[in-house]
Amino acid sequence: MKITAIRTGLLSIPLRKPFKTALRTLERQSSIVVAIDTDAGKVGWGEAPPTGAVTGESLGSIRGAIHEFIAPRLIGQEVENLEVTLDTLDRAVLKNTSAKAAVDMAIYDLFGKRFGVPVYRLLGGARTKTETDLTISVNSPDEMVADAREAVGRGFRILKIKVGREPATDIERLRKIREAVGAGVVIRVDANQGWNAREAVRIMRTLEAAHLGIELVEQPLPAHDVEGMKHVRDAIETPVLADESVFSPLDAAKIIAMKAADYLNIKLMKTGGLRGALRICALAETNNIECFMGCMIESKLSVTAAAHLACARNIITRTDLDSP
Ligand code: MG
Question: Separation of 9 CA from ligand 1 center, angstroms?
Fold first, then answer.
């Protein structure tokens, strides 16, 4: 089954509520959708949102990387030669991990369709169901309490609370949310690089002393500061989840070697797709480090690819696939 063409289109969906983290505010979910045509008539689908604040990519750069660098090298490649085809994709252009992710997942989609097997089963088939958390955007403490109550009312049992925009009020935010939702709801926090090491240790120790039952803290420090993350991990009781610090399998290897985090958050838009994500899973499996499957603000198209991986591997013990 030969690749004959790669097409792209724009998807743009208004969000029910603006998405706010320490890094950015979004009103719409926009993506480049990729369709890969083959001589067998089968079409593979993929998607990449422009997450400039995290991956450095825009709608234009995703489209440009695909049409200028990736498509000319992939057209004519055989889908069945998965290793060769994905090597070609990997070498077509440096970085541009979201553009690569969209194409990678479309190739896996075709590979599964070619052999009539769902991708989650091709990649391991560990389970058929996974439970996602729901993210509460960073807003005033009262608004976050209302959002948390509503989420629990809708049946979510795990909440991811965005903090890190104003460290001074983060403790108040979490105290009020825990009070509102009760002890039965899992609460994890994501600072999205918003703290420095001193703030992170002070805030987390205060939360620990208040017995707020915070499951873990995600990416407390700027992405590059892996040494700082190791310092924070050693200074607090709460487990640390690395997100923006881990893009590639090499990043994961470094974090594991330094013992800088308890968990790794895998996102297809950071790894360049399922193949890079599987390599992180292999490192994590070898070192017994549990992984999260996360997503950017994506539609159900690319989140479906992420859900397939989350259901494929036992080492992915938690999912944060709430965007759709
Ligand atoms: Mg995160």
Answer: 27
26: β partners: 19
Cα separation of the two ends of the chain: 32
Q: Is 300 one of the annotated active-site residues of the chain?
A: no
Token couple for 188: 């994890």
* CA pair distance 260, 247, nearest whole angstrom: 15
- Reported in sequence order, the residue ranges of 107-185 that DSSP labels E, i.e. its strands, are 134-136, 158-162
Ranges of H-type helices in 154-196: 167-181
d(CA 296, CA 115): 29
Q: CB-hemisphere CA count at 13 Å for 182?
A: 6
Q: Which of 95, 79, 102, 104 is nearest to 10 (CA)?
A: 102
Determine phi and psi for 103, rounding to 5 degrees: -75, -40
Query: 268: CA distance to ligand 1 center in Å?
Result: 13
Q: Pull the structure tokens for residue 121.
A: 């089963």
Tell me the per-residue pLDDT of 72-85, one tens digit each, with 9 for 90 and over.
999 999 999 999 99
Bridge partners of 44, per DSSP, are 36
pTM of the model: 0.96
On average, the pLDDT of the chain sits at 96
